[in-house]
Each structure stands twice: as structure tokens, then as C-alpha cells.
Specification:
Layout (H helix, E strand, L loop, with lengths): L8 E2 L12 E3 L6 E3 L6 E2 L1 H38 L4 H31 L1
The structure holds zinc ion (ZN).
Length: 117
């Protein structure tokens, strides 16, 4: 029984090859592929790992960025109510800004890592 390929994506451009001829050229970039031998096809493990990496990345950036925005909003809101508005505003901007900078840093590191591959 032939192994069923669940995630057949072009090695060159990540185009979804499912539903196409078992062997031929990628309609997107012209990369030759053969589903039976796996030539020119991104391996399932590699594709799954890439997806997992991306989900983890989005999660990290989303949580850090979201907390940063919340911290800034809370600081801004408290500043409008407090007698001395500078302290809550500074804390909010400081904490929020740090979290947003961390989110940007995590994102940049991932982009740089991806470029090196
Ligand atoms: Zn392609």
C-alpha cells in the first residue's frame, strides 16, 4: 500500500501540491516534484515543524504584544483618574513599552533565523 501523503507542499514556494498529478512541475514556481519519491516536496515532518514554530511564535508575540497594549491602556486610564497622572502613565508606558519591545524582539529574531535557513 502506498503511503498517503497528507501535506504535499512544493519545496520551492510552499504551494499546495495536493490534487495535482503525482509527478510534474509546480504550477507556481516550476520546481519539479514527485510525490512518490518525495523529490521537490517538503517533507511532512518539516512542514509540521514549520507550522508548529509559527503557532508558537504567533502565541509569544500575541501574548507579549497584547499584555503591552493592556498595560499601556491601564496606565492611561489610571492617569486620567489619579490626582498625579504622571506616575501611572509612566508605569503604563514603561511596562507596556517593554512588553511591546520584547514582542518585536521575538519577532525579529525569528525573521532573522528564518533568513539564515
Ligand atoms: Zn513551487
Amino acid at each position: 500500500m502506498a503511503r498517503r501523503i497528507q501535506h504535499a507542499r512544493c519545496l520551492g514556494c510552499d504551494y499546495d501540491l495536493l490534487g495535482l498529478a503525482p509527478a510534474g512541475k509546480c504550477p507556481e514556481c516550476g520546481q519539479e516534484y514527485d510525490l512518490a519519491s518525495g523529490m521537490g516536496v517538503k517533507s511532512e515532518a518539516a512542514a509540521a515543524m514549520e507550522r508548529g514554530d509559527r503557532i508558537v511564535l504567533w502565541f509569544k508575540v500575541g501574548v507579549l504584544g497584547g499584555l503591552g497594549v493592556v498595560a499601556m491602556a491601564v496606565g492611561g486610564y489610571n492617569a486620567t483618574r489619579a490626582a498625579d497622572w504622571t506616575r501611572p502613565l509612566l508605569i503604563g508606558v514603561g511596562v507596556g513599552g517593554t512588553l511591546l519591545a520584547l514582542a518585536a524582539l521575538v519577532w525579529c529574531v525569528d525573521v532573522l533565523e528564518r533568513k539564515q535557513r
